[in-house]
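User: Some background: our group keeps a shared notebook of sequences we're curious about, and every so often someone picks one and asks for a predicted structure to add to the entry. Today it's my turn. The entry only has the sequence so far, pasted here. Could you supply the structure so I can complete it?
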Amino acid sequence: MANAPQPITTPLTEPFYEAAAEGRLLIQRCTATGRHQWYPRTHSVHDTRADVEWVQASGRGEVYSFSVVNRSPFDDVEAPYVFAIVELEEGVRMATNIVGIDPAEVRIGMPVRVAFEQRGETSLPLFEAA
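Assistant: Of course. Here's the predicted structure to add to the notebook entry:
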């Protein structure tokens, strides 16, 4: 999906995309409870008085849910592709694509690991079978 639309970065998400460019997957962690969260926010969802910090995730997880997209909404994105929700070992769920595997072989509970794909000037975390 090299020609797929690029994400819009913001000051809040800059650490995430900078790490992705280095091949690292970051998520946020509550400084008071130590619990992880995803998607990026300026505050903790676990303790509203607490701050959050960016920490490196293991990059391992499993397919929580998925759908095979047979008709792409974008002219320059080849279908079929797999849109998935991956549950990371840290307990957060992330929307992503599963790559490097025949879409018919993807299964709920399938172990996956992070892989990065360059999209213009941005690198995105995608997941492949582990």
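Suggested note for the entry: Strands lie at 26-30, 36-37, 52-56, 60-69, 81-88, 93-99, 111-119, 122-129. The radius of gyration is 15 Å.
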